[in-house]
Amino acid sequence: MPPEGLRFDPELIRALRFYGIISLDLVTGPLLGLAFGRHLNQSFGLSPLWTVFGFLAGASLSFFGFYRLTTTEIYRDWRKNREKKGK
Prior knowledge:
The structure is a single chain. By secondary structure, the protein is mainly alpha-helical. It has one domain (13-86). Helix content is 86%, strand content 0%. It is built from 2 helices and no strands. The chain has helices spanning 10-44, 47-86. Helix 1 (10-44) packs antiparallel against helix 2. The protein is elongated. The protein starts with 9 loop residues before the first helix and ends with a helix. Pfam families: ATPase_gene1. This is AtpZ/AtpI family protein.
């Protein structure tokens, strides 16, 4: 049983989820792209080309996911504040 005064804060959980998704997305995208590029290099023998392409593709997809998540959260907060002011 939680002590008195200690409550579940959904905003804290939402913030931790937001930052966790961002950090995981920004790390795993380039690493998976790098691994896939290295695999293609070993398959086709074009040494640095596919590794660089895979890393850049993973990084750009990762930043696109970051952009999309951030704009969604900004819009959600804007809509929430707008509804509060309307009441």
